[in-house]
Amino acid sequence: MTEKMQDDVLENYVKAGKIASQVREEARSFVKPGMTLLSIAERIESRIKELGGEIAFPVNLSINDLAAHYTPYRNDTLVLGEDVIKIDIGVHVDGYVADTAMTLSFNEEEKEKCDNLIKASKEALENAIEKVKPGALLSDISSAIEETIKSHGFNPVSNLTGHGIDRFNLHDQPQVPNVKFKSDYRLPEDKVIAIEPFATTGVGRIKETEPTLIYMMLREGNARNTDGRVILKHASEFGGLPFAERWLPIESRVKIKIAMRELVSRGLIYEYPPLKEISSGLVSQAEHTIIVREEPIVTTK
Description:
The protein is an alpha+beta fold. It has helices at 7-30, 37-50, 111-129, 138-151, 226-235, 253-265, and strands spanning 54-63, 66-68, 84-93, 96-105, 155-156, 161-166, 169-177, 192-195, 198-200, 206-208, 214-217, 243-244, 269-272, 275-277, 283-285, 288-291, 297-298.
């Protein structure tokens, strides 16, 4: 069982959630086709800091069949078009994280299908949250997600999950699957979880693709490569939370890739490659962070 959450910890989780939800809703109003993904990311991340939060992970801006983990690189010229875009935002206050996501569609050619796809993941999230309380079976939450998404005629992404959250730990236990599974795990009071249903027009599985643009420091160590030493010094500032390639003080992407190869192979840095639906299906995502109580506290509502 988790220990009783202290008032100051609760306050930090709630503050992070309020900032994350405000930034998410602001993004809903300003994100439009014709904008570069880089300009969207920079505006979102700057706004988090303006509101008194810290960035818990690089904003994910994943388009169409990319489900997660795309963030722009330095000088990225990719422009948002008539696309389906997932906007996944992380905020922390003193290491206490709020994780939230939404999906927007600018696809006029398949407007009804895309709108329904977004609705499927949103309703799955709502139905899952209704199951959250101390002692609730995790398997009941996952069943609610799968059943809701399939009721709309889509598939849940079976190899993506929600996750527990702890201080400076974005992916704590338990995992929260988006498909039915057998488990006797029950949610303890005051556990913090992020529930994030992914719905797709495809078969419902993702695979890793290129280019990797998000990383996380696993442990301290030394690097032979000069740029690797710069990366490790910079990475240590994030407290074990993920960081973006574009945040590194090295201009050359080639030099970063060479240095990262050594750091990853030595187990010092972890990579988050973009995740693509294997049948090129469109993907939608919805996500909230919840503190498990009899009346669950949805920090990012």
